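dumping these here so i dont lose them again. two proteins, back to back, each one seq then structure tokens. dont judge the mess
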Amino acid sequence: MRCLIVEDQVMFLQLLCKMLQAIQGLEVVGIATSCREGLEACRLHRPDALILDLALPDGEGLIVARFLRLLQPQAKVVVLSAQASSFVCPEDLELMLVGVVDKTSTYETLQSVIEEALLEAHAEGPGSLQGVEGLTPRQREIFGLIGRGMANKAIAYSTGLSIATVETHRKAIARRLQCSGAELVRRAALHLGQMP
């Protein structure tokens, strides 16, 4: 998986690069510190994944995600934000978004959430498994908590994720299982054997 990082804080950018080097099958093909650089790097590298800061010195980071969507419709995006809990994904980018990471999280949490989001993006590629067995470990964990009747806020608290990240996982689970709402809760509960 070829990844581009767009982040304007140089120290945080270096931390992300070091963190991503440890993920097997992931290659950082470029870095950018502004929208302009991010757009150019997307055009040049056409990455499969984009780790994106929302607030950049020359504009909103989502501009880069929208441009990448035109070049690589199957690309996945992980959003970085100090206000992750209040982030609402624009409808036109919902299929690209695989994670929302709070920049103020601990190093271990950042690494875990980014790695899980990118693994999920890779698992959704061509030839991926369908059904519950096709879910990533984090998705299976969340699926189980949904089956226990937990709401997104409770799941976020239980797992240490942001509510936005839980919502992103829930949407990915619903897409994978081709159901949502009450049907998703029912299937999760049946999977746990909690309903006849």
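---- next one ----
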Amino acid sequence: MIFAGGIAKTHAAFLLAAMTVCSPQATPTVQMTFTNNAPVEINDKSSAELGSFHISTTFSHTRNEIFTVGGLMESNFAPEYRILFMTETDPVSGLACISPSQISIAVNYAPRIYIASEVARGTCRYTVNMQHEVRHVNTDIITFNEFLPQIGTAVQDAVNKIRPMGPTDAGGLTIAQNRITDIVQEALVRKTEEIEKIRLSRQQMIDTRAEYLRASALCQGQ
């Protein structure tokens, strides 16, 4: 009886340890990719239609100055992320621990350049409008190349603080997975918003009254 009791106590102690401790796991390295697609040219919308688009930049002008929208550059800066998870299940209790095993972030840059349909291809006005919009595209690319590594660093710093979560049952496992996802997403969104402010500030420096007056004077009569 004493021998059996000793076994029971030892077994109980083993289960208690298995249910409360998760094994340390290697922290995954965040992988960043940037795909730079060539701009797509679109020339089937009128100046009035382009003027109805949401335009992020603004500029002041006098009442006597009338500017029409001859071209627009449209792009989307929304990094996508993917997280793979690893679970470690205790065969006795059925409880499991979960941790991230792979994290990747992808930025797919696919700008679209709209030139008003009233502007014929090959004309001076078309060329001037295109050059202006290409400046917007190049500014985006320069900004992304400069600051996208900061996204990877910010997410990596957040991931470095994540420890295996659990042990827990299936319901708790889902909660833990969502919490890990939230940590990655919060770091990604925070840094993305910082870069977006820089990007829009640089784009605003292109869209100025002086620039529009300069461009307008290049193609007299068109």
